[in-house]
Amino acid sequence: GTLCTMKPDYAGLEGEARLDVQSKQGYPPFGVEMKVTDDDDKELPWDGKTFGRLKVRGPAVARAYYGGIGSEQFDEEGWFDTGDVAHIDPSGYMQITDRAKDVIKSGGEWISTIELENLAVGHPDVAEAAAIGIQHSKWGERPLLVVVRKPGREPTKMDILAFMDGKVAKWWMPDDVAFVDEIPHTATGKIQKTTLRQQFRGYRLPTD
């Protein structure tokens, strides 16, 4: 677990700035270490922006799974790969931005599907959205935004992209928008990204 109390660094924050800190998952308790790394296991900076694979280590962290299952998630130094993608700010507050299996890897950079989805559902005509990576001959993967319209609303691809434009980096912008009647979910309400990726397997992006 992590701690979510406000550190002295942020004691004077108010309004949106304070909520931004409070919305993070927090910082590790005494004795627990935390870091983010790239795919080559290089540790990334705590700048609150650069995200990578979240790894933890400490006496309260599991050292192995029963029967050796999942042993690849533990390295020789005792670091456990949580399967999450996150960034850490200079004061040690961590924020999860995606699952490692869902993040879109495009041209050597990572794109958070959760951030794209949260932005898209801010459009007044969008009921739900899911972002998945589609194979691209030049960039490896590029984002496809899958959207469910609100009843009686008819937003177009360009409406949604125009709404998102300027709110994320240009290279994060989805290459296409696909409209569906519903997005598959698990029994607990989570979006089934695996099912979506299968559904759109072979999809050809207009940019490829």
How would you summarize the topology of this molecule?
Blueprint: H1 15-22, E1 33-37, E2 52-57, E3 80-88, E4 94-99, E5 104-106, E6 109-111, H2 113-120, E7 126-136, E8 140-149, H3 157-164, E9 176-179, H4 193-199
Parallel strand pairs: 8-9
Antiparallel strand pairs: 1-2, 2-3, 3-4, 5-6, 7-8
What would your notes on this structure say?
This protein is of the alpha+beta class. The protein has two domains: 8-97, Luciferase, domain 3, CATH 2.30.38; 104-199, GMP Synthetase, Chain A, domain 3 (2-Layer Sandwich), CATH 3.30.300. 15% of the residues lie in helices and 27% in strands. The chain has four helices and nine strands. The strands form three sheets. Strands 1-2-3-4 form a four-stranded antiparallel β-sheet. The protein has a three-stranded mixed β-sheet with strand order 7-8-9, sandwiched between helices. It has a two-stranded antiparallel sheet with strand order 5-6. β8, α3 and β9 form a beta-alpha-beta unit. The radius of gyration is 19 Å and the shape is globular.
